[in-house]
Specification:
- The chain is mainly alpha-helical.
- The protein has one domain.
- It has 8 helices and no strands.
- Helix 6 runs antiparallel to helix 7 and helix 7 packs across helix 8.
- The longest helix is centred in the middle third of the chain and has 29 residues.
- The relative contact order is 0.13.
Length: 196
Amino acid sequence: MSLYVKDNIMANESAMSPYGASAMRSFFSRMLRAAKLDASLYDEVESDRAAMGQAVSVIILSSIAAGIGSGAFNAPGILLMTAAAFAGWFLWAFLTFFIGTRFLPQENTRADYSKLLRTIGFASSPGLIRIFGALPTLRGIAFFAASAWMVIAMVIAVRESLSYTSTMRAVAVVAIGWAIQFIVLIFVMGIISRTI
């Protein structure tokens, strides 16, 4: 390939639409930074209104990984588990916002649901490892590791998006929301499993 062609490809790539190769690199870079628990990433996506699509994509990918890794052996089971993971995430997000802004705010807490959704959407990046649960010997480890990693990422995201000065306050918000969401999901999945 000639130098002229390479230069034109690179120039075109950098000028691509938000859905081009450059945007994909940015998306995957952000996911990796979120998984590395890079607090500056959470500040970055909190301020970037255009990051909502990327955050939702992370949630969808993480939910699909949970569905595939759940051990369901047919398409309806995988879809059900994917939907449960997706619904569970949104319940946790709502609870986190509600608890963090109504019950445990600090003086400088500035509540903006879309900012919180962007940051905690990226906090779902570690959930992609749940796909390894498709291997029965790794299922428990993959789901436990993903859950613990996502909780830690969520604490950082909540601390940054709700402008907390106390990490322990963010831990409390995330833990309370997670516990309520877990109980609700266990109850709902119990009802669903009896009807299938």
